[in-house]
C-alpha cells in the first residue's frame, strides 16, 4: 500500500474514533444528540448550590431540622415569659378600650411633649400626640377618664393663652361600654382571620400544614402581646391593626415555605423519615434568602416609623417591628418543623404510607 493510501486509511480511523466520544479531526457534519433534561429531586438544588460561597453558601450548610427542639424551647420560653408579664402587669389599655376623653386642637405651630405636660400639670393627659406640620399642626390630648365640661374649658383656656388666639377644641368622649365592645370586636376579628387562614391553607395544601401554620401564627401573636404588656406601651386601635398586619405577613412567609415543600414533594415523594427531613431542610434552604430579604425590606420601613413616626404611631410601629421579626422566625423554625414532626409521628404509627421505590 502506498503512503498516500495509508494516509487516507488513518484519517478514516481517526474520524470513526470521534463517533465513540474521542477526538475527531474531520469536519463535523451532524450535531450531537440533544440531552434530555430530568427534574432535580428534592434537595438536589440545595446540594448543587452548597459549593457556592458567601451568605447563600453558608445557608446551604445549615441543618435547620436538626435543632428543631431548640426552636421549640425558644418559642415556649418567650410564650411563658410573655404570659407571666401579661398576668403580672396586664395590657396598658388606652382610651380606645376604656372610658376617656380625647381633645384635639389646631395650634398651628410646633411644640414639645414636655412643653404640653408642663402647661397642663393640673390636668395631665395620659398621651400627647402631634398631627400635621406647619400651620396645620394640631395637638391631640388623650385622658383615661371622662373630663367634665369645666375641666375641658380649663384646658382650652390654658392652650389658648399659651399658643395664642381663641382655640376651639374638638372633644370626643368614649363610654366604657364602647371600649369593651371595641376590645371584643378586636378579638373576634383576630379569630375570624385565623379561621380564614386555616380554611385557605387546608384547601391549598393539607390540614397538617394548616394547623401547623396557625399554631406558629398564634405563637407569634402571643409573644408580641406579652412583650407589649411587659413594656407597658399604651394599647390603642392601631395595636389591633398591627396585630392583623403581623398575621398577614406571618402567613405569607409560612405559605412560601410550605409551597416549596409541596413542589419538592411532587418532584420526588420521600420514601422514609430521612427523606422527609431532607425535604424540609432543602425547602427551607431554597427560600431562606428570599424570606429574609422580604422581611428586612418591611422591617426597615417599620423601624423608620418607630424612630420618626412620633407618639401617635409608636404603638403600631413597635408592635409591627416585633411581629415581623418573630413572624419570620416562626415561619422557618416553627411552622415547617411542626409539620415535619407530625409527618414523622404519622409514619411511626402507620397512618402515612411512604412512597415505594
From TrEMBL:
Matching Pfam families: Sec_GG (PF07549), SecD_SecF_C (PF02355)
InterPro entries xrefs: SecD/SecF_arch_bac, SecD/SecF_bac, SecD/SecF_CS, SecD_SecF_C, SecF_bac
Membrane topology: Multi-pass membrane protein
Positions of the UniProt region annotated as Disordered: 1-49
Keyword Transmembrane helix: yes
Major localisation: membrane
Stored Gene3D superfamilies: Multidrug efflux transporter AcrB transmembrane domain
Superkingdom per UniProt: Bacteria
GO cellular component, one term: plasma membrane
Coiled coil: none
Alphabetically ordered keywords of this record: Cell membrane, Membrane, Protein transport, Translocation, Transmembrane, Transmembrane helix, Transport
Limits of the Protein export membrane protein SecD/SecF C-terminal domain: 169-343
Subcellular location: Cell membrane
Parts of the chain that traverse the membrane: 70-88, 186-203, 210-231, 237-258, 287-308, 314-340
GO MF, one example: protein-transporting ATPase activity
Function field: Part of the Sec protein translocase complex. Interacts with the SecYEG preprotein conducting channel. SecDF uses the proton motive force (PMF) to complete protein translocation after the ATP-dependent function of SecA.
The family this protein is said to belong to: Belongs to the SecD/SecF family. SecF subfamily.
PANTHER family xref list: PROTEIN TRANSLOCASE SUBUNIT SECF (PTHR30081:SF8), PROTEIN-EXPORT MEMBRANE PROTEIN SEC (PTHR30081)
Name of the protein described by the UniProt record: Protein-export membrane protein SecF
Gene: secF
Amino acid at each position: 500500500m502506498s503512503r498516500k493510501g495509508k494516509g487516507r486509511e488513518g484519517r478514516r480511523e481517526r474520524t470513526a474514533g470521534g463517533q465513540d466520544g474521542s477526538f475527531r479531526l474531520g469536519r463535523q457534519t451532524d450535531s450531537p444528540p440533544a440531552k434530555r433534561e430530568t427534574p432535580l429531586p428534592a434537595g438536589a438544588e440545595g446540594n448543587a448550590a452548597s459549593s457556592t460561597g458567601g451568605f447563600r453558601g453558608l445557608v446551604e450548610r445549615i441543618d435547620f431540622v436538626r435543632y428543631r427542639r431548640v426552636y421549640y424551647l425558644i418559642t415556649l420560653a418567650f410564650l411563658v415569659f410573655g404570659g407571666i408579664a401579661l398576668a403580672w402587669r396586664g395590657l396598658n389599655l388606652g382610651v380606645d378600650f376604656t372610658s376617656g376623653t380625647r381633645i384635639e386642637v389646631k395650634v398651628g405651630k410646633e411644640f414639645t411633649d414636655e412643653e404640653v405636660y408642663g402647661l397642663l400639670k393640673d390636668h395631665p393627659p395620659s398621651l400627647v400626640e402631634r398631627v400635621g406640620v406647619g400651620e396645620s399642626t394640631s395637638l391631640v390630648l388623650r385622658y383615661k377618664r371622662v373630663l367634665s365640661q369645666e375641666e375641658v374649658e380649663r384646658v382650652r383656656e390654658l392652650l389658648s393663652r399659651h399658643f395664642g388666639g381663641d382655640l376651639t377644641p374638638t372633644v370626643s368622649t368614649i363610654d366604657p361600654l364602647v371600649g369593651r365592645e371595641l376590645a371584643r370586636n378586636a378579638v373576634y376579628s383576630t379569630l375570624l382571620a385565623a379561621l380564614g387562614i386555616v380554611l385557605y391553607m387546608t384547601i391549598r395544601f393539607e390540614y397538617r400544614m394548616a394547623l401547623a401554620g396557625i399554631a406558629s401564627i398564634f405563637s407569634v401573636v402571643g409573644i408580641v402581646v406579652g412583650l407589649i404588656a411587659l413594656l407597658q406601651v399604651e394599647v390603642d386601635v392601631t395595636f389591633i391593626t398591627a396585630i392583623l398586619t403581623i398575621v398577614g405577613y406571618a402567613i405569607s412567609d409560612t405559605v412560601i415555605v410550605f409551597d416549596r415543600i409541596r413542589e419538592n414533594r411532587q418532584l420526588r415523594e420521600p420514601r422514609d423519615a430521612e427523606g422527609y427531613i431532607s425535604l424540609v431542610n432543602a425547602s427551607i434552604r431554597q427560600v431562606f434568602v428570599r424570606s429574609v430579604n422580604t422581611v428586612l425590606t418591611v422591617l426597615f420601613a417599620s423601624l423608620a416609623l418607630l424612630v420618626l413616626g412620633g407618639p401617635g404611631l409608636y404603638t403600631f410601629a413597635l408592635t409591627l417591628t416585633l411581629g415581623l421579626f418573630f413572624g419570620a422566625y416562626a415561619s422557618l423554625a416553627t411552622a415547617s418543623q411542626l409539620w415535619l414532626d407530625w409527618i414523622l409521628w404519622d409514619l411511626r404509627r402507620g397512618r402515612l404510607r411512604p412512597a415505594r421505590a
